[in-house]
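User: Here's a chain of 156 residues. Predict its fold as tokens.
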Amino acid sequence: MGIEILVFEVEGQHFGVRSADVVQVLRAASLSPLPQSPESIEGVLNLRGCLVPVLDTRRLLGLPAREMQHTDHLIVVVAGGQVLTLRADRATNLVRLESDQSVEAQAGAHVHVIEFIAKTSAGLVHVLDPQRLLSDQTAGAIINALTERTATEVAR
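Assistant: Prediction complete.
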């Protein structure tokens, strides 16, 4: 039995997330700032009336910063009950993996956020675990910032 991953690119490198964690993929959109949020949060996206934090995937992966381009993709995922968005240069495709196509990530720059490394026809894909992208401290900061913003908007 295999799994499907959504493959995406950031700075020419291939990353992925399990398709079961993906809610949807969107084109770049305007983000609203989220005051007092961690540096890893670019802002929030209004997704059908819900404010969804957008993670700066480049910062989390230690890659050079870049302004959002109209060609970027926003990958909406669920991580531990929290809906969040990953910004990617572009989402490329869905890949079905068999059990012999993946290996555990044991070393490397991003091992703390990588669930496993997949061998695909496009090369190696570092499959991210959305849950690992959020430390407990970051998750708490996001929830607090969103709660404050929602309370401010309701008061208007």
